[in-house]
Hints:
The complex is a heterodimer.
Chain A (H helix, E strand, L loop, with lengths): L13 H19 L9 H23 L4 H15 L25 H8 L8 H29 L2
Chain B lengths: L1 H12 L7 H16 L8 H7 L2 H9 L17 H9 L9 H27 L7 H25 L32 H23 L9 H29 L7 H8 L8 H11 L5 H8 L11 H7 L8 H7 L3 H13 L1
Amino acid sequence: MKIAKNPHTNPTSIKTRFALRFLRAINKLSNDNGTSPRPLNSADRRKRCRAIRAASYASMASAVGPNKAWSRAVLRKIRNRTKEMIKPRTRRGAARGSMNPRKELGLGQEKELRELVPGGEAMDFRRLLNETGHYIQCLRAQVQVMRKILHYSST
Amino acid sequence: MEPKVEATQPQFRSGISGPNPLEMGLGFDEIHGLISAAPGTGSSSFTALLELPPPQAVELLVKEDYPVKPMPPPIFPSNIALIDRASKFSVFASADNSPESTNILSASSSMKLDLVKQEPLDSDSHPNSSSPAVSNQSLKSNKRKEREKKVKESNKKSKKVVANEASEDSGEKLPYVHVRARRGQATDSHSLAERARREKINARMKLLQELVPGCNKISGTAMVLDEIINHVQALQRQVEFLSMRLAAVNPRIDFNLDALLAAEGGSSIDNSYPGTFAPSIWSDGQINGSRQHQYQQPWHFDGLHQPSWGREEDTSNFITPETSLLSYDSPANSASLHSSHLKMEL
């Protein structure tokens, strides 16, 4: 049974690692745009916003490590995008992806959950629930750290 | 025998009182006499169970794959309730062995428990018929009664799952799952396995319910799933919103990451996040200068800005060392090694 441990009570915890990576990424982003400190036109701002968001997901996924299916999926996506090549996906769970046809098909929620959680398509339902739990915890931590960064950078 | 049967019949129908061991033994003995004297059925395995010594009987009850002898329906002429129950478990009418073995066992166990429940009734009406010859058997049957009570309790429990569920992705490599069927439920292997699976899914749903705020009051998996989906979407929207704000605010951040790393030294950043974050950054803000340049230098990734990739090479080698990353890393090797060294010190 999934044990709902809090992954953020460790000093070298996911939160810490995420904060470090994210800060570094933001730093790099802002140093690369060193010339125009304030991207005034909206396209640049949107691009920067997207870059920051992608950096936050990437930092969180790399902080979590390869132990979780969703973090692996995120990293895979990023790597595919940077390398611009299609890697053969090792769909370990594809054979049993359709194992639970009977349960939880209330109005396609299961499908929706699979779309929300990265890497959710190739899992059976029980695994999907596990991953969702961990994903929710990490998302929460991500939001907290980002909020704190925002707070301390704007003061 | 017939009048004796009818005489004892109404006693079984009265209310259930608390068990008294001695009287239970007496009652049991009477029933035993009744059953063993029941004509025509010959060797029914149920009576064979009764004659067995107690531990073996319980063991037989508990084990699922007990090879059951062919069983003609046992006749309990004195107990209408039992007959009703026997008819409910219609397996008694069939002559099949193996698929019905679990059925028979569970049915027989439940019937036996009925027997146990009704023994005090009988015993209450015979308080004075105490014979020393019965005492031995009463002791034996008392032990058996207690074991049956234990079996009864385990019957009332939902499952006895022996499978190793500690690992999350042990989904399909479970060892043999021992499952006890609940009373009144189908016990063929398919529904058992399905029920086990459903229970695991329900357990996880319960954990998720605790995780998502406000989900505890909702019952029904569909609504809970809705809540979970909403929660995940809300969190993702928050991330997007925060990243937008960060993009607007951002340009003036010079965090001294080295100082951040060093200042952490054992204290968890999340526990004392509001406290240590500001001092660790702003107190060493002056030592910024040269250190910062090391990080800036040559990490020119085109797609995502991932200075963390270099670190990944050191710590967790799940990213196969790609040549592009390595080449980017080499000039900045000193910086990354330095920071990784600091990180290891934590």
